Every structure is written in C-alpha cells, then in structure tokens.
From TrEMBL:
<keyword id="KW-0813">Transport</keyword>
<dbReference type="GO" id="GO:0005886">
    <property type="term" value="C:plasma membrane"/>
</dbReference>
<feature type="transmembrane region" description="Helical">
    <location>
        <begin position="14"/>
        <end position="32"/>
    </location>
</feature>
<feature type="transmembrane region" description="Helical">
    <location>
        <begin position="142"/>
        <end position="165"/>
    </location>
</feature>
<keyword id="KW-1003">Cell membrane</keyword>
<keyword id="KW-1133">Transmembrane helix</keyword>
<dbReference type="InterPro" id="IPR000060">
    <property type="entry name" value="BCCT_transptr"/>
</dbReference>
<feature type="transmembrane region" description="Helical">
    <location>
        <begin position="196"/>
        <end position="219"/>
    </location>
</feature>
<feature type="transmembrane region" description="Helical">
    <location>
        <begin position="338"/>
        <end position="356"/>
    </location>
</feature>
<feature type="transmembrane region" description="Helical">
    <location>
        <begin position="475"/>
        <end position="493"/>
    </location>
</feature>
<feature type="transmembrane region" description="Helical">
    <location>
        <begin position="368"/>
        <end position="386"/>
    </location>
</feature>
<dbReference type="Pfam" id="PF02028">
    <property type="entry name" value="BCCT"/>
</dbReference>
<feature type="transmembrane region" description="Helical">
    <location>
        <begin position="425"/>
        <end position="445"/>
    </location>
</feature>
<feature type="transmembrane region" description="Helical">
    <location>
        <begin position="231"/>
        <end position="253"/>
    </location>
</feature>
<feature type="transmembrane region" description="Helical">
    <location>
        <begin position="92"/>
        <end position="111"/>
    </location>
</feature>
<comment type="similarity">
    <text>Belongs to the BCCT transporter (TC 2.A.15) family.</text>
</comment>
<feature type="transmembrane region" description="Helical">
    <location>
        <begin position="265"/>
        <end position="283"/>
    </location>
</feature>
C-alpha cells in the first residue's frame, strides 16, 4: 500500500478505523434486524427531542446572535488569510459554490411539499387544513430554510476559516478549531474523537438527503419511463448517483464540482423560471409576501416554540397508558423545528470546512452576509415558486397533495406538481420532469461529492489544503454514504421519513458542544491576535 500512493497523503488509521467501526456498529444491526432497528431509531429520536430538543432551539438563536456580533462588531473586517489576502474566486462563483455545497436535492423535495405537512398538522394549535394553517405553512417553510438555518451553517465556518488561514499551522480539522479550548488534547485521542463525530454527523446528514432524494428520483423516473417504483429502482438510482459522483471524483475536485455546479445553476434558472412564468404567478407572489410578513412578525415565537404544554400532555398520556413516549406522534416543534435544526447542525461542520477552504481573502462580514442573505434568498426562491405552486394546485383542485402524502406518495406528489406545471406550458410536462430529475441528480451529486472529499480529507494525515486526499479513499467514502442511505431506506420501508429524521437528529447531538467549543476558541484567538 505504501508505495502505490507515495504522492497521496496517508490515511490516518485511527480516525479511519474509528469512523468505520462507528458506522458499521450503526448500520449493520439496522440491516440485520430492520423492524427492531426502526423501533430503536424511533426511540432515539424521541429521547433526543424530548430531553434535549430545547438545546437545538437555543443553539440556532445563539448562532444568529454570535454572527450578528461578528458581522457588526469590532472583528467585522477580519480577513481570512490576513489583511492583504485577495479572494481566490469571483464573488459570484464563490456564492454559487457555497450554495451548491450546502444545499442539495432536499430543497427540491421540501421546497415543493413541505407546506402540505404543516397544512395538515399546523403549529400553535391552529385548526388543521384551515386558511390560517395554510398561511402558517407558507411562513414555516421560509423559517426552516431561512436566516436561523443559515446561521447554523455559517457559525463553524468562522473558527474553521480562521484556523485554516490565519493561524500559524494551517489545518482543516474541526479538532484544531477546538484547540483554543482543549489545548494539546486536540492532537490526541480527544481530537480524533471530535473528528470522528464530525464524520459521523456528516454521514447521518447525508443519509437523510440521499434517503429522501432517492424515492423522489425514482418517482420521477417511473413517471418518465412508465415503470413501477420499487426498492430495486431506488437501489439502481443510488448506484447511478454513485456513478455520477464517481465521475466527479475522478475528474478532480475543481473540474468535477465546477462543471456540475455550472450546469446546476443554469438548470435551476430554467426550472424556477418556467415554474414562475407558467405557474400561478399572482398566488406565488401573494403567498410569498404574506409569508415573509408572518416570518418577521413571529420570528421569535417560531424560534422559541417548544410546544411545552402539548408535549407534557402527550408524555402524561403515554405514561397513563403505560406506553413509551414516541416523538414521531408528538408536537410540531419536535417533529419539525428540532429535526430541521439538527439536520442543519449535522451538515454544519462540513459546510464550515468547505466554505473555509473557498473563502480566503473574504472578511467575516462578507462571509456572514453571503451565507445569511444569499443562502436564505436562494432557498426561499424554491419555496416561493415550487411550494406555492403546489399549494395552489391543492386549492384549485388540480391535485390533492395532502391525500397523496397521507397515502405514502410524497415523492409522487412532488413529481406530479412538476408535471402538471409543465403541462400548463404545453403538453410538455415530461420535459419539465426531466429537467427536475436531472437537476436533483446533479444537486445531490455536488453535495455528496464535496462531502466524500471532506470525509477523506479528515481521515487523511495531511490536511486537504495542499494535498488532495487519495482518489480511492474519496471514492470509498462515496460508497459508504450510498450504503448507509440504502440501509436506512431498507429499514424505513414504506414510511422512511421518521427513520431518516432520526439519523440526522441523533448525529447532531455531540456536534452541539463541539461547535460551541470551536466558537469559544475563535474568541480566544481573536483576543490573542488583536490584543
Ligand atoms: N439541509 C440544508 O440535501 C440537501 O439539501 C442538503 C440539507 C441541511 C436541510 C442539506
């Protein structure tokens, strides 16, 4: 092994080994005992949201507060790479890369039908399927994909970027970003543990993405090719997806991701452009406007909504009936906001690393503005155009999205929305479905590709700044991602959502204290460097 890859950085055996063991320990029982595995995941999800769910809410608010301080406080003009550093990428492609890395096919999934879940099960005791429920549904989509969410994404980028570009020994490790707090322990076992937690988080987060994206792609293909959606089709989709990122792995990070990101941006333009021009424009604009109003007016109550009374009632009722409490049947907050924040947290250190790597020459303020403003607007466009169209189709009776979801056909509901939208242009629904499917494929591939790259970089001895991790090593992580996602789909059976939600929620827990540590480290460094 040694000679084959003299040019490539060596694998860090301890991190690599620990990560593999953790993943195997997680995935094997799921595949061997799917029914028990699913129950166990459900219990874990319930335990986390029931016991420490509030922590996720505080984390999101805290992240925003810290970022506002950095954006407008005395460190606003600190530049990655030092005062003289110049940016490596043009502002536009920097923002495009940042968006494409952090946002995957999930925005197409949830952007289209998230409202329907809130319409049927609204927050704040609103009557299900009422007018108010629909308006809240519009606002909550924006909330879960808005400023708070992007704050979670942005937070780790600051300490990671500072550790990479402004400290004497550049490093791409989350453990190094925590060294201001844990000192030399960051080079020992504690540090490795942090890096493994990072990997575990990312794999959990990605599994949720692949697990949701795959049935959506299968539904698209089954519409286009007239074949039935089965587990085999799902498995085939995952393999093709793997092949696509295999391609981008082999063409190298820059070329692969850049080509795909470019195609991506064009296709998003075509899809959203058509959906706006030929969709129910007036409703889209009205609903967006109204949702933005609700979003701002209720920002704090949404952020701190922990459903304490309903939750306590549910727990008491479960106790009285002698049953264990299951969050999946629980409150809006547990089922949605806590899940979402956890999912963003699972991705956050990865996003931080990637963004750190492309942000030399940018100031704290620029980075925060790019993520919070551009990221939010980018996500909102999907909700404004696709989600509001789907909502309109429900209202005017074109299709019954809620009935389809209740019937376990959420992926079909998404594809139908796109097809019916396309049919408004001409009988060209299938063409728009094709664009949608290709876009989802590429969107997923760019996200997975950069994550496989990051996983391999973290499990290599050298950081990924000067040396790219070995290709086989990157490819291996791509396969691991595909396998974990496949096992979750298998476990979930017809109802995969809760299994997929559990994966993200569980992996996010250890990341919260780690991210807090990295921010404290950053404060320490800044105080040292700018004393
Ligand atoms: N987040 C943004 O599939 C994706 O869109 C990846 C998902 C964390 C909800 C990210």
């Amino acid at each position: 092994m040694e000679d084959i890859q003299t040019a490539d950085p060596k694998v860090d055996k301890l991190i690599f080994g620990m990560a593999f063991i953790v993943i195997l320990a997680f995935a094997t029982p799921l595949v061997l005992w799917p029914a028990e595995g699913k129950a166990l995941l459900g219990t874990a999800l319930s335990w986390v949201t029931k016991t420490i769910g509030w922590m996720f809410l505080w984390f999101a608010i805290g992240a925003l507060a810290v970022l506002l301080y950095f954006a407008f406080g005395k460190y606003a003009n600190v530049r990655f790479g030092g005062a003289e550093a110049t940016p490596e990428f043009s502002t536009l492609s920097w923002i495009a890369m940042l968006f494409c890395a952090g946002i995957g096919s999930s925005v197409m999934y949830w952007g289209t039908i998230e409202w329907a879940y809130y319409y049927a099960g609204p927050p704040f005791g609103v009557e299900p399927k009422s007018k108010d429920a629909l308006e809240w549904a519009g606002a909550y989509g924006l909330f879960h994909w808005g400023v708070a969410a992007w704050s979670i994404y942005c937070l780790p980028a600051l300490p990671l970027g500072y550790a990479l570009w402004n400290r004497t020994t550049p490093s791409m490790r989350l453990s190094t970003a925590c060294s201001g707090v844990i000192g030399h322990a960051s080079e020992g076992f504690a540090g490795k543990l942090i890096d493994v937690m990072f990997m575990f988080g990312l794999i959990g987060g990605i599994s949720t993405t692949i697990g949701l994206g795959t049935p959506m792609l299968s539904a698209g293909l089954s519409e286009l090719l007239g074949i039935e959606r089965t587990f085999m089709l799902d498995a085939a989709v995952i393999c093709v997806w793997g092949g696509l990122f295999g391609f981008s792995v082999y063409t190298g990070l820059d070329k692969g991701i850049r080509i795909l990101s470019d195609i991506n941006v064009w296709l998003v333009g075509v899809l959203l452009g058509c959906a706006f021009l030929f969709g129910p424009k007036m409703f889209q604009l009205d609903m967006l406007t109204n949702s933005i109003g609700l979003f701002f007016e209720h920002y704090l109550s949404m952020s701190f909504n922990s459903d304490p009374v309903t939750k306590a009632e549910n727990i008491l009722a479960a106790q009285a009936a002698g049953e264990t409490y299951v969050a999946a049947s629980g409150t809006f907050s547990e089922w949605w906001t806590m899940f979402y924040w956890a999912w963003w947290i699972a991705y956050a250190p990865f996003m931080g690393l990637f963004v750190a790597r492309i942000s030399r020459g940018r100031t704290f303020q620029q980075l925060i503005a790019a993520e919070l403003v551009a990221g939010t607007i980018g996500c909102w466009l999907f909700f404004a155009v696709l989600g509001n169209t789907s909502m309109f189709f429900q209202l005017d009776g074109t299709m019954d999205v809620n009935a389809m979801i209740a019937n376990g056909q959420a992926p079909e509901a998404i594809i139908q929305t796109i097809k019916l939208l396309g049919d408004r242009i001409w009988p060209l629904g299938w063409l728009l479905v094709l664009v949608f499917v290709v876009l989802a494929f590429i969107f997923g591939a760019t996200t997975m590709d950069s994550s496989a790259y990051t996983l391999a970089a973290v499990a290599s001895q050298e950081d990924g700044v000067r040396h790219e991790p070995a290709r086989w090593h990157r490819f291996l992580w791509a396969i691991v991602l595909a396998c974990v996602a496949l096992s979750l789909l298998y476990v979930g059976g017809k109802d995969t959502l809760s299994a997929l939600q559990s994966a993200s929620v569980v992996v996010a827990v250890p990341l919260v204290p780690i991210l807090v540590m990295s921010v404290i480290s950053l404060f320490k460094w800044l105080r040292e460097d700018f004393a």
